[in-house]
Design goal:
The structure holds 3 protein chains of 3 kinds. By secondary structure, chain A is mainly α. Chain A is built from 15 helices and no strands. Chain A starts with 12 loop residues before the first helix and ends with a helix. Chain B is built from 12 helices and 2 strands. Chain B has helices spanning about 5-30, 50-55, 60-90, 95-110, 115-125, 130-135, 150-170, 175-185, 190-220, 220-225, 235-245, 250-280, and strands at about 35, 40-45. A two-stranded antiparallel sheet of chain B has the order 1-2. In chain B, helix 1 packs across helix 12, helix 4 (about 95-110) crosses helix 7 and helix 7 (about 150-170) runs antiparallel to helix 10. The radius of gyration of chain B is 23 Å and the shape is globular. Chain C folds into 2 domains: about 5-235, P-loop containing nucleotide triphosphate hydrolases (Rossmann fold), CATH 3.40.50; about 240-350, OB fold (Dihydrolipoamide Acetyltransferase, E2P). Chain C is of the alpha+beta class. In chain C, strand 16 and strand 17 form a beta hairpin. Chain C is elongated, with a radius of gyration of 24 Å. Classes of the chains: A mainly alpha, B mainly alpha, C alpha+beta.
Chain lengths: ~270, ~280, ~350
């Protein structure tokens, strides 16, 4: 039998293999973390013995980790809520407004995205040191809001500018006030953008290292900072257990996104 | 939209901008002061001493060249490795393949930086997976962390999803009928790629490389965790000033110089990107 | 349905930067009458419609509905239901939710609202689709939902923005007839905007052809169709024949040197004239042994379906298009010598050459 050659393939097998190799490189850290978390030592990936939950136990019984986790989650939740509350009106102004400075306003609030976190962190530290506020929980939270705002704005703006403006006109034509038209017609359709923006804000606040590193103090640390200092001091797979939990959270988030929006649509927005 | 409503809606964002302005004004003024040893108090008089000291310091210049070199290397490898994946994603015939790839990329992306930095310590470390395997085979071990190899590997791993997803969004706007048309007109797959796909991809490639370079310039976590203090980039140099001596004014001055460098670089690269984009369209 | 009102527009003007979008437009639409604003994109017709609905604030002029000026009233208070070009249905609401939106805004009691929504859906014959989402509907069904949504609030004035532009040909003809019947039955004062001359003719009682923000010609559909007032209107409404003509010594119009019986040139104009006549109005017969009149030769034939299109060459490189309703199956061959008959009452004499 003659082999049938698929001339219609857009990507040659070689190029496809190269692509998949890259994908493997990107994903490879995750399985190793999970393996490490259930092994008996950092560098003994399931070498001997059965899987263990010792490091997970260690993580949840470690007071410093639990305090850092509590800080990170509460900071991330506050950041998400505040960021969306600021992001929504800002997106409306930027896409629908008429006043001349609105593009500039968008560029200015987007600065923390362009400027490396270390610079933002140093600046924030300089500010809290000079004003006497000092580092801690609230400075971290405010810094996270500033860092997360541009990330959250992008999907909201993309979502909003994709909507047919005639819909709001139709609502007014049918007797709705501008505010009612927005709330009943536009806002429900902004759910995907708000969801995507919210997730970006949450992840940024949970994961940020470079800004938070400058604003933590003895009493207030966040999970990434605590994990780093733990690695430097002790270096057992407790951090792998923590990372495994983060991976589970990440996979859950992506699954929810896939279910609610579809990953393609999510990408379109961001 | 009527103007008062617009201003009301812009108010929260304006507050954020005012805060940012205050913070940066403050850090500029701090960078002109001197620190008391070990203390959180800065004193005047305001001078450019921090700046002149930094500009004359070989260490500072070395971290500038390290930062630029590492960012360049990461961007280059990113381009070579990332392009095939972005293209596979954009042209994958089955929706399932695409969904699988997207799922992997995004799950990795959301799992956070510390997670991945730690994974690379496990894999590349002196007693890590690779060196254990080498030992088992009776080969000498190699140093893969506390040097640029480790830093570049981890940075690459972090930046690739951004690069691939950005390039993917650009690539999929190129209609695949153009490639079909080229094949129909007698071009081989390779020539189609060279004469049709590549020129049309250039704006997307430029945008993705720009992003990749910008992210690499600011990378902090990976040089810090995998460099082990031996790979000094600007980000770690700034942090060290605070960690070791709590010299906030000096750190602030270095941060401002870094900011200046970044703004200049990004302005130049942004202009280059515009040229590429304009010539391609 | 609700009390329909006459509409009057006076001296309406709107400028966008350097561009005078609307320039002193005056119109009046009697109660229950349908007016079509016809013109190419950028002629200002949409700006007029948006001014009536309240989405554009005019620089000058007045818009009165039932004698009362609309200008101080915000869009939501005007009672002018609009059918948007791409329908602007709310994608996150069901068909019932879309149609009931206006009643919800007017705080109509639930039971009554439900009854009126059902009635409106029945009126446009989609009562079975009430629980669907817009994305699940065909183009024609969406059009009906948009229409029901506009009609259910018993508007004082109905505004149609390119109402059938998004539909394909077959559906468009079906909806044209249906829309016209509905208008007649409900007696709604209507203003529509279109760039499609056919749509304007079949859907309206009065047409205003617009050009560069002004009204070029206003008249009944038949007047516009048969007797365009200018070269612009003739070209835009698709008059197939614009024939260069001259004035004879007796003020009779001549084409290719042949006088057209009964067709008089207008007084005191130049000698260069143009005769506008539709292809379907031109008569044609075989040239006999001793032919007289407008002599020509068929050079091209094309089957249109219900008619045959002939292109007839006259002396002087003139080409006349003739649509002849089919009688039997015989089609005249190219090369046949024919005599053309241009009835004076179907001709329009325009000054100047095209």
């Amino acid at each position: 039998m003659r082999r049938r050659i698929d001339h219609a393939r857009a990507v040659s097998p070689l190029a496809a293999a190269a692509g998949l190799a890259t994908l493997a490189f990107v994903v490879i850290p995750l399985p190793f973390i999970v393996l490490s978390a259930i092994s008996h030592g950092s560098y003994r990936l399931l070498g001997k013995g059965s899987p263990t939950l010792e490091w997970f136990r260690n993580f949840v019984t470690n007071d410093r980790f639990m305090a850092a986790l509590g800080n990170s989650v509460s900071i991330a939740l506050i950041t998400t809520a505040v960021t969306l509350l600021i992001g929504l009106p800002t997106a409306v102004v930027v896409t629908r407004g008429t006043f001349p400075g609105r593009r500039l306003l968008l560029s200015l609030v987007s600065l923390p995205l362009l400027i490396p976190g270390v610079i933002v962190g140093t600046a924030a530290l300089g500010f809290v040191a000079q004003t006497g506020i000092g580092p801690g929980y609230w400075p971290i939270t405010v810094a996270m809001v500033c860092a997360a705002l541009p990330l959250a704005l992008r999907p909201i703006i993309a979502n909003l500018s994709g909507l047919d403006q005639d819909q709001e006109k139709a609502a007014r034509n049918l007797g709705a006030s501008p505010l009612r038209g927005f709330c009943l017609v536009t806002l429900p359709q902004l759910a995907p953008g708000l969801l995507a923006g919210g997730i970006f804000a949450f992840i940024e606040a949970m994961d940020n290292f470079s800004i938070a590193a400058f604003l933590t103090d003895i009493n207030t640390t966040t999970l990434p900072i605590e994990a780093y200092s733990y690695i430097r001091d002790i270096d057992d797979p407790t951090v792998a257990a923590m990372a495994t939990l983060l991976i589970v959270m990440s996979v859950l988030i992506v699954m929810v996104l896939d279910r609610l929006l579809g990953l393609d649509k999510f990408l379109d927005l961001s | 939209m009527r103007r008062p409503t617009g201003l009301l809606l812009a108010f929260p964002a304006i507050l954020v901008v005012i805060l940012l302005a205050a913070v940066f004004a403050s850090v500029v003024s701090v960078s002109l002061l001197q620190a008391d040893p070990g203390g959180a108090v800065f004193h005047g008089p305001a001078s450019l001493r921090n700046y002149t000291r930094l500009l004359g310091s070989a260490d500072a210049w070395r971290s500038v060249s390290n930062t630029l070199r590492l960012s360049g290397i990461v961007t280059l490898i990113c381009l070579v490795c990332g392009f095939p994946l972005a293209r596979l994603l954009a042209r994958a015939s089955s929706a399932r393949t695409r969904r699988m790839i997207l799922f992997c990329l995004m799950a990795t992306f959301f799992s956070g930086g510390v997670t991945r930095a730690y994974a690379w310590l496990i894999i590349l470390g002196n007693r890590g997976l690779i060196n254990q395997s080498l030992q088992a085979l009776g080969l000498p071990s190699v140093a893969l962390i506390n040097n640029e190899t480790g830093v570049v590997t981890a940075m690459l791993n972090f930046v690739l999803p951004f690069f691939v997803l950005t390039l993917f969004s650009a690539l999929r706007t190129i209609p695949d009928t153009l490639e079909s048309a080229a094949r129909n007109l007698g071009a081989s797959r390779a020539r189609t790629f060279l004469h049709v796909t590549l020129p049309l991809s250039l704006p997307g490639v430029a945008a993705s490389c720009f992003l990749c370079f910008a992210l690499s310039l600011g990378a902090f976590l990976f040089p810090e965790m995998l460099g082990g203090g031996r790979v000094q980039v600007l980000a770690t140099a700034i942090y060290d000033r605070i960690q070791t001596t709590y010299d906030v004014p000096s750190a602030a001055a270095l941060a401002m110089l870094f900011l200046l460098l970044i703004l200049c670089l990004l302005a130049v690269l942004g202009a280059a990107r515009q040229v590429v984009t304009r010539r391609a369209t | 349905m609700g009390a329909s009102c006459p509409l009057e527009i006076e001296g309406l003007s709107k400028r966008y930067g350097q561009h005078q979008a609307v320039d002193g437009v005056a119109l009046s639409v009697a109660e229950g009458e349908t007016l079509a604003l016809l013109g190419p994109s950028g002629c200002g017709k949409t700006t007029v419609l948006q001014s009536i609905a309240g989405f554009v604030t005019p620089d000058a002029g007045d818009i009165r509905l039932g004698g009362e000026s609309l200008l101080p009233i915000p869009p939501e208070g005007r009672g002018t239901a609009m059918l948007f070009q791409h329908y602007a249905l709310f994608p996150h609401m069901s068909v019932g939710g879309n149609v009931g939106f206006g009643l919800r805004m007017a705080r109509v009691p639930k039971a009554e609202a439900r009854r009126r929504v059902e009635e409106a859906l029945r009126l446009v014959r989609i009562e079975a689709l009430a629980s669907r989402r817009p994305a699940q509907l065909s183009g024609g069904q969406r059009q009906r939902v948009a229409l029901a949504r506009a009609l259910v609030i018993e508007p004082r004035l109905l505004l149609l923005d390119e109402p059938l532009g998004a539909l394909d040909q077959n559906l468009r003809e079906e909806m044209q007839t249906e829309l016209r019947k509905l208008q007649r039955r409900l007696g709604l004062t209507t203003v529509m905007v279109t760039h499609d001359q056919h749509e304007a003719i079949v859907l309206s009682d009065k047409i205003a052809v617009m050009r560069n923000g002004r009204i070029e010609q206003a008249g009944t559909p038949l007047e516009i169709h048969d007797h365009p007032g200018s070269h612009y209107v003739a070209t835009f409404t698709g008059v197939e024949n614009l024939l260069p003509a001259t004035r004879s010594s007796t003020d009779i119009v001549e084409i290719a040197g042949t006088p057209i019986a009964g067709l008089h040139a207008p007084q005191g104009t130049t000698d260069a004239l143009t005769v506008a006549i539709r292809a379907s109005a031109v008569g044609m017969r075989a040239a006999g042994a001793k032919p007289s009149g407008l002599l020509g030769t068929i050079v091209f034939t094309q089957v249109l379906g219900a008619a045959i299109r002939y292109e007839v060459a006259l002396p002087g490189a003139l080409l006349v298009r003739v649509d002849e309703a089919r009688r039997g199956t015989a089609i005249w061959e190219p090369g046949t010598a024919v005599v053309l008959d241009l009835p004076a009452d179907r001709c329009t004499v325009l000054t100047g050459n095209a």
